[in-house]
Design goal:
Layout: H1 2-10, E1 11-13, E2 20-22, H2 41-69, H3 71-84, H4 86-98, H5 100-115, H6 119-129, H7 139-180
Helix pairs in contact: 6-7
The chain binds zinc ion.
């Protein structure tokens, strides 16, 4: 007699799809008397998604309102957590940046930055050669610096092309361009 009772205990019938499923397939709920939602996780996910689609504007408004009103509290909590977990953050960010795929990604991003002569890269160069702060570099100076760098690059490319010929030039172009930048 005890065996069938046990079987009933560990499975439950979903009110939406009507399937008998293991209790683990149902979300916990304090509002329902057996501690489980009447519908299974998959049915719940479909329902939640449909609900979100129907009410997305209201939900987004509510979320941004919450963030707005809890900004200070949220920031203070974040700052406190960061202050307490400094070492933890340092270690996890080092681990993250040491992952081969992240290393590759960072390198690619860095190369792209140099290749495109982005503002941040030019500012970085200016800061290295002057005692200006990163945020103090005027936009006008960045623009002038970019023009100069572009000119230098094109001059160097022309020179390389003359010196090494087209085929060899293709191979060294990126490296030499980086030297100028
Ligand atoms: Zn279901």
């Amino acid at each position: 007699m005890s065996l069938p009772q046990k079987v009933i205990m560990i499975t439950k019938i979903c009110t939406k799809c009507g399937e008998g499923k293991k209790l683990g397939e149902f979300h916990n709920s304090v509002r329902h008397k057996n501690g489980k939602h009447p519908s299974c996780k998959s049915c719940r996910a479909i329902y939640d998604h449909e609900y979100y689609v129907r009410n997305s504007i209201i939900i987004q408004k509510r979320t941004s309102k919450w963030h707005e009103s809890n900004k200070t509290r949220h920031n203070v909590l974040g700052r406190n957590w960061k202050a307490i977990n400094k070492e933890k953050i340092r270690l996890s960010s080092r681990n993250y940046n040491n992952k081969p795929q992240i290393k590759d990604k960072n390198k690619q991003r860095q190369n792209k930055l140099i290749e495109d002569l982005r503002d941040s890269y030019i500012k970085h160069l200016i800061c290295q050669n002057t005692n200006l702060d990163y945020s103090d570099v005027p936009d006008e100076i960045v623009r002038i610096h970019r023009t100069i760098l572009k000119f230098k690059r094109s001059e160097k490319e022309k020179k390389d092309e003359r010196n090494y010929g087209k085929k060899e030039y293709e191979g060294i172009s990126e490296k030499s361009r980086r030297c100028v930048g």
